[in-house]
Amino acid sequence: MTAAPPPVEPQHPDAAPIAPPRDRLTLTGIRAHAHHGIFGHERRDGQPFIIDVELSIDLAPAAGSDDITRTVHYGDLAVEIVEAVEADPVDLIETVAERIAELCLRHGPVHAVTVTVHKPKAPIPVPFDDVSVTITRGRA
Fold first, then answer.
1. Does the residue 73 lie in any domain?
2. Which of 72, 80, 82, 129 pairs with 100 at a CA distance of 20 to 30 A?
3. Would you state the torsion angle of the CA atoms of residues 97, 95, 100, 103, taken in this order, to the nearest 10 degrees?
4. Which residue segment(s) compose the domain that 56 sits in?
5. Is residue 79 part of a domain?
6. Catalytic site residue 119?
7. Which stretches of sequence are listed as region Disordered (predicted)?
8. Is 32 contained in some domain?
9. The pTM is what?
10. Catalytic hit among 119, 124, 126, 128
């Protein structure tokens, strides 16, 4: 379960805090080939990474207006995520997850994001299906 972002403080002193949005926009199974890892062969050969993101966002303005500029264009976001994953190799998938979270939070209407980075071909010496990290970040 993802942590809810904190309430938005009211603009008027007598107003009650506005509850964070409960709406979610989810992208699952975004695939990228990148060169992250601590071993030389990971940096040299690369491997697949699979990304899931869940955005906490108020979808009512977009739904009410039928206007894509009032939401996050998920096609554009998916391309941005792949570009971020494939850029600048790092040692840890935790670092990749932070990079993706920061990218998602730059989209204006996003209040919080949960990012999972899967590394299904990680160099683990026993049989396994997947290894992943999941982080949740919100606006400060």
1. yes
2. 129
3. 150
4. 24-138
5. yes
6. yes
7. 1-20
8. yes
9. 0.84
10. 119
